[in-house]
Amino acid sequence: MAEIDSEHTLTVDRILAAHAGRPGPLLPVLHDVQNQLGWIPSEAIAQIALGLNLSRADVHGVVSFYHHFRTHPVGRHIVQVCRAEACQAWNCQATEAHAQKRLGVDYGGTSADGCFTLEAAYCLGNCAAGPSVMVDGKLYGRVTPQRLDTVLDDWSKR
Amino acid sequence: MATRIYVSRDAAAQALGADETAAALLAAAGAEIELVRVGSRGMVWLEPLVEVTDAAGQRIAYGPVMAEQVTELLGAGLLQAAPHPLRLGRVEDMPYFAKQERLTFARVGIIDPVSVDEYVAHGGYEGLKRALTLDGATIVQEVTDSGLRGRGGAAFPTGIKWKTVLQQETAQKYVVCNADEGDSGTFSDRMLMEGDPLCLVEGMTIAGVAVGATQGYIYLRSEYPHAQVALEQAIAAARSRGYLGRDVCGSGKAFDLEVRMGAGAYICGEETSLLESLEGNRAEVRYRPPLPAIKGLFGQPTVINNVISLASVPVILQRGAAHYRDFGMGRSRGTLPIQLAGNLLHGGLVEKAFGVTLRELLYDFGGGSASGRPIRAVQVGGPLGAYIPESQFDTPLDYEAFTAIGALVGHGGIVAFDDTVDMAHMARYAMEFCAAESCGKCTPCRIGSTRGVELMDRIIDGKEGQGGIDQLTDLCETMQHGSLCGLGGMTPFPVMSAVKHFAADFARKR
Ligand SMILES: NC(=O)c1ccc[n+]([C@@H]2O[C@H](COP(=O)([O-])OP(=O)(O)OC[C@H]3O[C@@H](n4cnc5c(N)ncnc54)[C@H](O)[C@@H]3O)[C@@H](O)[C@H]2O)c1
Ligand SMILES: Cc1cc2nc3c(=O)[nH]c(=O)nc-3n(C[C@H](O)[C@H](O)[C@H](O)COP(=O)(O)O)c2cc1C
Ligand code: SF4
Ligand code: FES
Fold first, then answer.
1. Whole-prediction pTM
2. What's the CATH number for B423-507?
3. Which residue, B143, B151, B201, is CA-closest to B308?
């Protein structure tokens, strides 16, 4: 089965058209594609390469360089757990371990029910009230394992 | 008349429930209040902070106010600024705030961040208005005379950088703001962009006018969606009022701005990597020279500065170089927005003149550790900054004083750890971070950091002894001297400072 259907092709075309003529368009295009499709399928890479007059290898090289861009389908929500120093000072290790246990996955994995994809983050800018967690762009502070349960319970209903 | 109530929209306040508190206020008293969402005052432990305007027009703070407490507080007379255990009084009278010198953060937490009218009413755009009466060289001289040094961490004099760009004779120049703020323990860029984004817009406009650049880019890390919204609202507001665009304030000079999102790579904070990323490439570090000031974005002369450097320029132009320069010590002039992070009771943002000691920051402002245990180590200046032991807490915040003890002021992030910290683990983490974030261009960084993690694992397992420490020292020397940029070159700082000051943690049986 094709990874990307014709509706997706249209979406990518629309994004390419919206960025036409912009200097250095590749990252903005990739962001828009990922925001709308949830990830960047290989067909989209080919289509972007064609649209921006780059080689597929060029586009692939850029996509693979950045942690933010995903080349696999993801769950309904993205959970980012900060593992950087200031959150370690707040014992984020316990929060990390709890997230992995509850979701049954390591970083990069998606829970079996397809609800959450777990990602590591290196500072979310909330270092005075760690451990910090972000779910689909919503930030949470002082996320102990218990509070993580409350947060994830809430998101699992959405 | 409706009572004006202020609740922060800052991401850190939201992270502790400010949106829910704001919603509860509207639900319970929507008809009686005018709710204004502001930046954060920087006292993170008191968020969600609610400020109520009293009969005398003063702002009285309550905090932390959780949504569940709103009904009870309203019943107790919140709208009349009545007494209550959560009542804090005026923020300006609280010691944490009163002891600060707020120049760059003067408006943060006070005004609606995206209202041009409020910005102007609080002194905004006075700096630009003055700059528009001066020629480029005079503006650059003013910035040079202020003593402002790069707040991104390297502390290079901002005016001298601008002068290099001014002197280039090309048709196109750029101003780029480095808003990648990758350092853990730092959030001042974020707070400024969310709390007073027009200040950054004004600073970049002044830079453009000074060096003759017409286009600016703000390269913002993808972890900061709240800042993106605030910046885009502020840019649109400034443009609609003629502060950006083809004819800035009727001066005939053009300047416009665009926000570009990063994509989760720490190395993109390094300026040449950032420029590669803006151009749409893999963000591999470029060899310098040429400096970005000579050949930067798309090969054109480019001013690239940190958020706080650029946001400090409006007040310098508004009040004059001498006003700014009169704060500080030695060659570190002006103020630094310091971020108190990690295991501290009173974490948050403290803008102080250079010269304040670490101890004052950790105890007088920070209130000591949140856990109540002794503070054993602090890391200053992000993941590439040294770990500092208690014996050096009297060091004043000053670029040269920190260099003298083998440490780094950097972007002013201070992360405190109590005595449960295992410094061998922190040293291992520094290597792991370097390995994860290396752009791969040079061997000492790419391979060295991976070797460093393996070596640290053996040291932690007790399989190495002194031989392991000697190997680690050699490896760090190779990384420090053989790396192209600061990621590989400075990872030895946290690692070797941990070895030096906390040797017992490397010898301990676990
Ligand atoms: N803020 C953060 O999140 C963060 C993260 C990692 C590192 N850092 C900091 O980055 C620093 C290293 O940065 P760097 O490698 O860019 O430092 P650098 O000293 O090489 O350069 C500093 C700045 O001065 C400019 N410059 C240098 N000489 C110049 C000249 N003669 N004319 C004009 N401009 C000139 C450079 O282009 C650059 O913009 C470290 O000290 C660290 O504190 C900050
Ligand atoms: C690995 C690495 C990461 C960096 N990250 C940042 C960053 O996130 N933000 C920043 O302002 N400067 C960062 N810098 C410093 C920039 O290269 C550059 O010095 C700075 O943007 C110049 O602006 P300033 O003079 O206003 O400080 C980093 C440097 C290195 C070596
Ligand atoms: S030191 Fe590391 S991050 Fe810097 S250029 Fe070399 S490989 Fe890239
Ligand atoms: S270190 Fe976790 S939010 Fe900054």
1. 0.97
2. 1.20.1440.230
3. B151
